[in-house]
Automatic annotation (TrEMBL):
ANTAR domain residues: 127-188
InterPro entries tied to this protein: ANTAR, CheY-like_superfamily, Sig_transdc_resp-reg_antiterm, WH-like_DNA-bd_sf
Organism: Azospirillum rugosum
Pfam families (alphabetical): ANTAR (PF03861)
Name this protein carries in UniProt: Response regulator NasT
SMART domains referenced in this protein's UniProt entry, alphabetically: ANTAR
PROSITE patterns named among the record's database cross-references: ANTAR
């Protein structure tokens, strides 16, 4: 995380609970910290600030607070790091399922905050890369299916070989300055028109 100023939103039920987080994140010039007391507007503040991470000291957070923080983690907009004094059964599993980057129980000490946040940010970035690669692979697969279907239509309607059908798709895409998948979709759509 070097060479980039990190934006961190720190939250807790009160100033005393956020103090260890602020102490753990202070002392380095590469972090811009915004602190909020209470959890009522954490989601709105996160949307407005677009931080790299939301770091929260839960204290005795209720289920509604946890749900809002879990929803923030699900949104994928930033890494969410939670520190709790204790966790009821199932809360840790729910945090992991929601995509919380780090959930630390009974371990909030200022000297631990920065390494935990750095690790959570790295894990979050790696996970986002995996999601982006997955989405790209899904898009490529969907486009291949469109192209295969359009080739089949051209082969049937125009008595072309598979290679000729693909060449026709490619040439049409080049002529029109469009992607082959877009041309394929047009052919599929046109074939579905009933007269």
């Amino acid at each position: 995380m070097a060479n980039k100023t990190l934006s961190i939103l720190v939250a807790g039920p009160d100033a005393a609970s956020t103090r260890p987080l602020l102490d753990g994140l202070s002392g380095t010039g590469d972090i811009r910290v915004t602190a909020v007391e209470g959890f009522a507007d954490v989601t709105a503040r996160a949307a407005a600030l677009a931080p790299d991470a939301v770091v929260a000291a839960l204290g005795g957070a209720d289920r509604a607070t946890l749900d809002s923080l879990f929803q923030l983690a699900r949104s994928g907009g930033c890494a969410v790091v939670l520190f709790a004094d204790r966790a009821e059964p199932g809360v840790t599993a729910a945090a992991v399922e929601a995509g919380v980057a780090s959930f630390v129980v009974d371990g909030l000490r200022p000297d631990r905050v920065r390494p935990i946040v750095d690790t959570a940010l790295s894990r979050f970035a790696a996970f986002e890369t995996l999601k982006r690669e997955r989405d790209e692979a899904r898009t490529q697969l969907a486009e291949r299916k469109l192209i295969e279907r359009a080739k089949g239509i051209l082969m049937q309607q125009k008595s072309l070989t598979e290679e000729q059908a693909y060449t026709a798709l490619r040439k049409a895409a080049m002529r029109q300055g469009r992607r082959i998948a877009d041309i394929a979709q047009s052919i599929i759509t046109a074939s579905q028109i009933e007269f």
